[in-house]
Amino acid sequence: MKKSSCFREFLKYSSLNVLGMIALSCYILADTFFVSKALGANGLTALNLAIPVYNFINGSGLMIGMGGGTKYAIFKSQGRMKEASHAFTNAAVLTALIAACFFLLGLFASAPIARMLGADDTVFEMSRTYLQVLLLFAPMFMTNNLLLSFIRNDGAPQLSMAAMITGSMSNIVLDYVFMFPLGMGIFGAVLATGLAPVISILVQSSYLLTKKNQFHLVRCRLSARLSLGIFSSGLPSLITEVSSGIVIIIFNRIILGLEGNTGVAAYGVIANLSLVVIAVYTGISQGIQPILSSNYGKGIRENVQAILRYAVTTVVILSAGIYLCMFFGAEPITAIFNSEKNQILQEIAEAGLRIYFTGCVFAGLNIILSVYFTSTERPLPAQIISVMRGFIVIIPMSFLLSAVAGLPGVWASFPATEFLVSLVGVGLYAVMRKKS
């Protein structure tokens, strides 16, 4: 593949996936907007307390989808189609097993999970309802992630994008219908969110029914080695999503102690906008994964490095634009979600947006490097980056800076963490390049 062709492939896959992931992230953003209009600050608080569970479900689906898709792309590029279908079959079985665990939690444990996440009597019932329905739809969320990844790696990124956008747009329409004309409250919001992946799967089913797919379910044993390989390659994707959930849980706990439910509602605005921004970077990373894995499998190393350069450049340019929007547009952006015109919520969220999003360029770099390592069968440095930004650095950083500077310290812990981890990531990349 020539460099010019390589750049066209990068534009094709990345742009389609960025559009699709932005649409996908609107699952929760649409809920935030309509919940804020229908249920006010308490609704925002309940929603923000429940969002981490969505991160865990989505992260599990991404782990198996991205990990299985990486294995599939490498096998396919090498002409090993039997092993490629084994990768899909193993990924499908793993999806079913993990989704069943989430489903059982939805049936029997939504109330204690809501309490564990910090829901008080004021917002408990709304949080419990949102959590339960979200967990019951986990098989749909995870199956959707699995199919999106394999169809993308099968050479049909347009269909993946169309499915994500269709699902997201249907969620927005259903959000409005369920919450306003039908008056279904928080249940209507989460039901619309749960139906979105079902609609996305229906869009993708045309690809399978017309037998365009080169991946198939085949009779084979569940391979421990292949399953571990899928988990290993997909683990950074899981940690990226789970870390977002962990950050939200920790921030919620700290902010509850500092500013109560109003502070958590303000953080809900920041957290949901952050999901959209991270979705942009995830879209770029998911877009480059198939072409990175394919070129790596064929041994075309110069294209692998070119794709990485394109991705990093794109992240830097987009991050500059995103931060300018957040800095100068903090007031009107917050006002969109502040239906009660709560002045305290407005002030907290405005200040938070301007501090929190200074870390977006470093977060984007970390996500790109992580997927670069996994796509080229170097899972360990990707796991180091993901674990550091998800657990090792962010947790002590949030407690330390909040103790020193209060609420501004909470907001600053995100950019401080992403900056430190990006230094480690660049160092790992330099060591890897030197060795190779």
Give a verbal description of the structure:
The protein has helices at 3-77, 81-108, 110-116, 124-136, 138-153, 157-179, 185-209, 224-298, 301-328, 330-337, 343-356, 360-375, 379-392, 394-405, 407-435. It has 15 helices and no strands. The model has no long low-confidence stretch (mean pLDDT 88). It is globular. Helix 1 crosses helix 4. The protein is an all-alpha fold and 436 residues long.
At a glance:
The chain is mostly helical and 436 residues long. 88% of the residues lie in helices and 0% in strands.
Summary tags:
436 residues; mainly alpha
Number of strands: 0
- Percent strand equals under 5%
Low-pLDDT ranges: none
* Helix/strand/pairing category: mainly alpha
Q: Quick check: average pLDDT? A: 88
Broad shape:
globular
Largest sheet: none
Tell me the radius of gyration.
Answer: 21 Å
Helix content: over 70%
How many structural units, i.e. domains?
Answer: 1
Q: Which sequence of SSEs, written as H and E, runs from N to C?
A: HHHHHHHHHHHHHHH
Distance between the termini: 21 Å
The number of helical elements comes to: 15
